[in-house]
Each structure stands twice: as structure tokens, then as C-alpha cells.
Amino acid sequence: MKSVRDHLRDLQSQASRLTETVLALDAVFAAEEARLDRHDQASRLEAVYRAVAEDLQRLREAEASASRDSSRMRMMSSLLGFAVTAIISKGGVLSAITDASLREPAARELPFGLIMVCIGPGGLPDDVGAVSISRLVRDSHLPQADTINRLRDHGYLLLSAGAFSALISRLAGDVREGRLHLPVSRDSLIDIDKPNRQILSPKIIALE
Q: How many domains does the chain have?
């Protein structure tokens, strides 16, 4: 009987050690799973940044092209106006239409090159993209300030390319350290770090 009891105690001891090992392995696997999840979330943020950076570059090129086209059109219009004026002046007659056009102030300069990152109410990583503020102004014929205010009134956060880069870098670091999980709402982005609020400040900056 004693040998049986000793054998049972040995089995219980082994079972206890096995249970402890299984629990320890579960903790290790859970920790690794959490680490991989954080890594995936951070990688997703970085992928969003790369996609937005490509959109920003595409819009920069489009704005540069639109600006060149506008400059050519203004030049052609000016040359045509000078030619018409010269022809009429040579004949000693200045038409009322030409005279009025010469007295009118120059047309309002169209804006080009103001490109921002726009984060919607859905926040990151799903509700973000690049937007040409200048294109919106040209299409709507509204002042730039009114266009920006309309976007903000609809819940959009506007960031320069530099501010967006700093934001993604900070968020990715927080995600990897387990201090933050996706998704991050638009309101959370504003309040995420008040001591460093300048990082998230939606300043309107024309991009080179």
C-alpha cells in the first residue's frame, strides 16, 4: 500500500508540475499573441502613412501642373489683351469693352499647392486621406478660410504632412508599447497628448 501511495503522490506531483508548465506556456503564448497583434496594428498605421504620403505626392504633382496651366492661360490672356489694345490704338479707336477691361482690377489670384491630410470622424486607420484645399477653393469659389471651416464643421481634422508624420510615429510607438489600440477616433487624436498638443495642431501650411 505504501508503494501505491508513494506512486500516487509522484503522479500528483508530476501533474502539478505539468499544470504549472501548461499555465506558463499559455502566458507565454498569450504574451506573444498580444505582441504580434500590437506589431500588426503598428504596421497597419505605417501602411496608412505610406498610402497617404503617395496621395500627397500625387496631389502635389497635380497642383504643380494646374498652376503651370493657369500661368500659361494668364500669359496668353495678357498677350491677347495687349495685341487687341495695340491694334485698336493704332486705328485711333479704343472700344468701350477694351477700355473697361483695362480699368478693371486684376482677377483674383487662384490658389494652388495647399494640400493637407484630412482625418474624418472615424479616425485612424480607416478614415483618413489627402485633400487639396486649393482645388476645393477653386471649385467652390469660396474663400480659403470658409472652405477650411466647412471641413472642420463636418468633423474633419486637418494636418500638414509633417504633423501627420509625427502623429503616426507617435501612435505606432504607443501601439507597440501597448499604451494604445486601434482604432483611434478623431476626438481621441485631439486629446491624446495635451502636453504635446503642437504635434496634433491642425495648422494650415502650404506644402512645398
A: 1
